[in-house]
Write the structure tokens for this entry.
Amino acid sequence: MGEKIGVIHYNTGDKNLEEFLSWSNRNDIGYVELQRKDVWNEEIKTDMVGKLLNKYKIKISQISCGNDFLQKTDDEFQKQVKIVETMCDIVKELGFNHLRIDGGWPKEGVEEKNYKNLVMKGVAKVVEIAEKKGLYLALDNHGTVTNNYLLQLEIFENIKSKFLGANLDTMNYRWFGYPVEKLTEIYKAIAPYAIHTHLKDGTGSKENYVGKVLGEGEIPVIEAINILKENGYNGVWCIEYEGKDQNIGYEKCFEFLRNLFK
């Protein structure tokens, strides 16, 4: 099977990094998306992470920076840029070249009218860093700011860098509030920029959202995959599951994708 199937270290029953990698290996998953906390804290050294990846024969599809450009002061903003720069160095030291970045989250003291400029400014600054280091940044459609796909498109079209693309999350646009009928149009708009995916299913939006196994929700997952392929996507198909019974749910998602790619 030529398709690369991955899984994100999120909602996986509080498994620590080694437990998560071991579980991924047992399920024959060759790629993982890690979180910043997996590779960067006082107790973790990069070479330890590398040894675990080698032990379980796993590759990193991307690491999530967890950055937030919606800051009240320039000092706080620059700290977020520095987080992305440090994560660039960490992922490069591990021998990989993809990071997931966020725009940011609304907060008291940051006016909504400034959201777009702050996100655009932040992404532009970290793209400059990534270009120098030869690393790819995948902007996630996440939260209530960058799930606005028109803002995403404006960012991609204004910054225009081969090192900047989209992390296309199939569910998040629906969570944000777009109707199911709109999703195919959005996927077609974002797919040319996609350099990573989150294949995620569910029903409803915002407080009515319920995570589901792939193929059991209202998201046109197969159509999204076909649209991505038509646009030349050949990256990792990274599964994210936000329902109950995490192990069973994820394993059903693995089975769905394997059957689809037979």
Summary: The chain is about 45% helix and 20% strand. The mean pLDDT is 97.
